[in-house]
Amino acid sequence: MLATFPSVAVLVRGSTQAATQSVRALRALTHYPTWSIYLVLDDTPAAEAYNRISSQCDEEYLLFWEAGLAPTSGSWLERMVSALNNPKIGAAVGMVFAEIGSPIAGLLTKRDLFDLLGHFDGDRFPDLGYLEDYLVRLLGLGSECVAVADAEFLAGAAQLTSHASGRV
User: Fold this and answer.
1) Rounded to 5°, angle at Cα 126 from 57 and 46
2) How many domains does the chain divide into?
């Protein structure tokens, strides 16, 4: 599907227990060659925490991931990255199968666009609305966001960690 594989930073934010479950599921179910996991385990507001951790990464793409989510197939990340190959697309999201307050999750965006837009607006949207605000500003640049049908996630990563091996 992809000729080259851009590097992806997966920023997992949430409680230690939920993050551990997500990391196990991600490691077990992600078949993509160039990705790294960064954990955000403090009580800082979400936008501020993601901004801080993203500034420490040097990967080409950033994936903002809420702890407790787990992918349902191994090709999900490749499919999301493939969506960003279209120059009109600046962000991609997956679909969640459970009630977590939003049917979308796992915002993947290009680092250069994230930097250009000044990251998440933590002053106006510290914990809620920062993703939506980012997408509105992205649209203002003429970029689009797409939902990737084959990137599906389950809330409650513990359901999938029984298949995972290794530790965080």
Assistant:
1) 45
2) 1
Is the pTM higher than 0.85? The answer reads yes
* pLDDT for 152: 87
In sequence order, the β-bridge partners of residue 144 are 89
d(CA 42, CA 163): 27
How far is the C-alpha of 120 from the C-alpha of 54, rounded, in Å?
10
Positions in the chain whose pLDDT score sits under 50: 158-168
Confirm whether 2 is domain-assigned.
no
The CATH number for 63's domain is: 3.90.550.10
Give the sign of the dihedral formed by CA 123, CA 126, CA 128, CA 129. positive
**Which element (helix H / strand E) includes 49?**
helix 46-54
Q: Is residue 3 part of a domain?
A: no
CA–CA distance, 66 with 72 (Å, rounded to integer): 15
